[in-house]
Specification:
It contains five helices and 18 strands. The chain is mainly β. A hairpin with a 2-residue loop joins strand 5 and strand 6.
Length: 350
């Protein structure tokens, strides 16, 4: 369903991003914040973080120099034991970053609480050293990371900006999780099939079996709500989290499905030209928690030249479970206060 690949902006701390892209944490950065056992003891060098998860935390920094090694720890554990984070989950998190510059002194640099847009983090793409404190924690937990300042020469060699003095601190609040095999709750009220539409019986936690009728495809976009969700309506420019299966109308063959990739949900921006037009038009306005069937004519799918790009040809049918919809991070502002638009921001041509 993608029209072109889109990078997902994740406003984690610069150090976290740098470490993730490098593949390993330097050996001399690694110090456990606590020993795992019957009782978890936090490292005394961690900042004191208070307040409810879901609200911006209050942070007090100890009267010591910023640590010169990486430390981390769970400072608040959520109460939902039935919602433990798994190693291959995608989590929705609020993140607050500080630059710890001297004894008891720090400056907040970024906060998703300020922007109102939490971020999606795919734990399977993070280093185990970074994800370890998140895995097996209940939703509603809060984790703090402290990273020592990066060496200026090393940063230059990696093509990264010159590091700021002191240590970088990231506070990660786990708001919710999405995992393999997740589907929307509720029972289907219909399998479709009316007025020449395809059918798709409820397959539980498995790929739906979409059956194409012996009739012509509709010449305009059609949607059928198989399960009506109770969440908010999807808005343009949000990031969607979905399970989906797509088939061609001509032969009913599956050409793409999250279930064929182990049932790991997919995520992408909606309503901004990053996916085919039939998705942008058919999913915006649907409710989170819905299962929707889309019958998409050729001109709203990959077009008459689909074969040239290796895309499925002709009219298409999708069944989509809308697991979540997340507000996107605002674009960075230029010095003049306006975000600069470039050709890269434009959707790919038909």
């Amino acid at each position: 369903m993608r029209r072109r690949a889109a990078a997902l902006a994740v406003p984690f701390s610069a150090v976290l991003l740098a470490v993730t892209s490098c593949g390993t944490i330097p050996e001399d950065w690694r110090t456990p914040a606590f020993m795992r056992g019957d009782e978890e003891e936090l490292d005394e060098r961690l900042p004191t973080v208070t307040g409810e998860v879901g609200e911006e935390p209050k942070v007090e920094f100890p009267d010591i120099a910023p640590p010169d090694e990486q430390i981390s720890g769970v400072v608040s554990e959520g109460g939902g034991e039935d919602e433990l984070v798994r190693a291959d989950d995608m989590i929705l998190a609020n993140i607050v970053d500080y630059q710890w510059t001297a004894e008891g002194e720090a400056e907040k640099t970024t906060s998703t609480y300020d922007t109102g847009a939490p971020v999606l983090l795919e734990l399977g793409q993070m280093n185990e050293e970074l994800s370890a404190d998140l895995v097996d924690q209940p939703v509603g937990s809060r984790v703090v990371y402290v990273f020592p300042g990066q060496d200026a020469a090393e940063a230059e060699a990696m093509g990264q900006p010159s590091p700021q003095p002191g240590s970088t601190v990231s506070i990660v609040d786990i708001q919710s999780r999405y995992g393999r095999g997740d589907v929307v709750p509720g029972e289907q009220t219909t399998d479709g099939g009316e007025d020449g539409m395809p059918t798709a019986a409820d397959a539980g936690r498995d790929r739906p079996d979409i059956q194409i009728p012996d009739s012509d495809a509709p010449d305009e976009l059609r949607t059928v709500e198989l399960i009506e969700g109770s969440g908010p309506e999807v808005e343009a420019e949000q990031q969607l989290v979905v399970q989906y299966t797509g088939v061609t109308w001509s032969d009913g063959e599956v050409f793409d499905s999250t279930w064929d990739r182990g049932g790991a949900p997919a995520t992408f921006p909606i309503g901004v030209g990053q996916v085919i037009q039939g998705w942008d038009e058919g999913l915006v306005g649907q409710k989170v928690g819905s299962r929707v069937m889309l019958a998409i004519p050729e001109d709203l799918a990959y077009g008459e030249n689909a074969a040239e790009s290796g895309s499925p040809e002709g009219p298409l049918v999708f069944v989509v479970d809308i697991l979540g919809a997340v507000d996107s991070q605002p674009a960075p502002e230029e010095e003049g206060g306006e975000a600069e638009e470039t050709a890269e921001d434009e959707p790919a041509a038909e």
